[in-house]
């Protein structure tokens, strides 16, 4: 079995470790890196997985999952560059960073797979999109899909679509949380206790998501099924349209895509 090292044990990195363990991987086949000793000790106690340095991880692991913040990538690449060869597989979970960045900084031929996950990985319900770099084969993609299948669903997309994926599903949970927050506030405005408003909206969101996942019907048809003539729902929909909620969502997601593109360009070589 391959040894897998997660470089950066933040929330996403920890969620992946947890998912791999629940999926049957032995703690002996997993490693992680973490800059804070107290956090590293906490994770080792919780999962039985050893924390190591980046260089040690590069020497011992077959698969290196890079889960650091995009702005922290440069020192990590500096450490990895002299240690990795074609036999290693690098999996990038860093938003906005193209495979070309890794390929430019690492030895020639190192396979890189770019992934955009999202935070529902924490509850085993991630939506992850994977893209092959120039040296990654179908076998490499299969390895990455298998890893991520332990924490949710996985699709393969061309890398040219990754910034759009980042904006839509990578940031997507935040949009839902934002809407739920606003709806809870609306319940309070209408006189409901906060706890009750939260219970009503959160279960409605869970139920609606399950209907979307399990139904073959288009979201428009599911919405229309709730929207009776001259009823309460159509009055609410009219107000949403009047205030440009649909247009605001389109603009927001486009802005997120543009930011993802900027993150990648920030690491392009200067001429």
TrEMBL record:
Keywords: Amino-acid biosynthesis, Cytoplasm, NADP, Oxidoreductase, Proline biosynthesis. GO terms for biological process: L-proline biosynthetic process. One of its GO terms (molecular function) is pyrroline-5-carboxylate reductase activity. Residues 4-96 form the Pyrroline-5-carboxylate reductase catalytic N-terminal domain. PROSITE patterns: P5CR. Residues 159-263 form the Pyrroline-5-carboxylate reductase dimerisation domain. NADP(+) binds at residues 67-70. Its EC number is 1.5.1.2. It catalyses: L-proline + NAD(+) = (S)-1-pyrroline-5-carboxylate + NADH + 2 H(+); L-proline + NADP(+) = (S)-1-pyrroline-5-carboxylate + NADPH + 2 H(+). It comes from Amycolatopsis japonica. This is Pyrroline-5-carboxylate reductase. GO terms for cellular component: cytoplasm. HAMAP family: P5C_reductase. The lineage of its organism: Bacteria, Bacillati, Actinomycetota, Actinomycetes, Pseudonocardiales. Pfam families: F420_oxidored (PF03807), P5CR_dimer (PF14748). Belongs to the pyrroline-5-carboxylate reductase family.
């Amino acid at each position: 079995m391959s040894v897998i090292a997660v470089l950066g044990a933040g929330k996403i990195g920890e969620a992946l470790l947890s998912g791999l363990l629940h999926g049957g991987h032995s703690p002996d086949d997993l490693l992680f890196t973490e800059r804070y000793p107290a956090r590293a000790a906490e994770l080792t106690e919780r999962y039985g997985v050893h924390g190591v340095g980046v260089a040690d991880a590069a020497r011992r692991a077959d698969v290196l999952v890079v889960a650091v913040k995009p702005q922290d990538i440069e020192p990590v690449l500096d450490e990895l560059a002299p240690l990795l060869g074609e036999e290693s597989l690098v999996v990038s979970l860093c938003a906005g960073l193209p495979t070309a960045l890794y390929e430019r900084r690492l030895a020639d031929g190192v396979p890189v797979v770019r992934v955009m996950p999202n935070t529902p990985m924490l509850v085993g319900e991630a939506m992850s999109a994977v893209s092959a770099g120039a040296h990654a084969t179908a076998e490499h993609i299969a390895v990455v899909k298998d890893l991520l299948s332990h924490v949710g669903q996985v699709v393969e997309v061309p890398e040219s679509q990754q910034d759009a994926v980042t904006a839509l599903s990578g940031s997507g949970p935040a949009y839902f949380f934002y809407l739920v927050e606003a709806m809870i506030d609306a319940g309070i405005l209408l006189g409901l206790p906060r706890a009750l408003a939260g219970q009503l909206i959160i279960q409605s969101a869970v139920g609606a998501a399950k209907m979307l996942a399990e139904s073959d019907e288009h979201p428009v048809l599911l919405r229309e099924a709730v929207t009776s003539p001259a009823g309460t729902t159509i009055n609410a929909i009219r107000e949403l349209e009047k205030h440009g909620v649909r247009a605001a969502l389109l603009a927001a997601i486009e802005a997120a895509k543009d930011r993802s593109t900027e993150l990648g360009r920030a690491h392009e070589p200067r001429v």
